Amino acid sequence: MNITINPGAATEDAAQIDQIVTQMEEDMQVLDKAIKNNIPDGIQTSWSDTLRGNWESFYTADIPQTMEEMKLSATNLRMAVDAALKYDQER
User: Fold this and answer.
1) Taking Cα atoms as reference points, which of 73, 69, 63 lies closest to residue 16?
2) Residue 73, C-beta contacts closer than 8 angstroms, at least 6 positions apart
3) What digits encode the pLDDT tens for the residues 26-61?
4) Are the C-beta atoms of 48 and 39 separated by less than 8 Å?
5) Taking CA atoms, which of 44, 59, 77, 84 is between 20 and 30 Å from 69?
6) How far apart, in whole angstroms, are the C-alpha atoms of residue 68 and residue 72?
């Protein structure tokens, strides 16, 4: 079995994952602030109250968990590259 290692590309992919997650976290903070500033003060309807309730649930549980999983993907990619390089050097 042959393994082709392109560490530069793989580590760049991991860095891009980190950058995307960071940007998404910043954007989610902006959205969170907008929702909390406008509901219910600017928009007070049953629909908006439901939206805020759902958002708060997602923002405190689902979204952080998903972001952590994406960060873990980047970490796992780096670890896989490191392991493959070590294996290659031991041969």
Assistant:
1) 73
2) 17
3) 999 999 999 999 999 999 999 999 999 999 999 999
4) yes
5) 84
6) 6
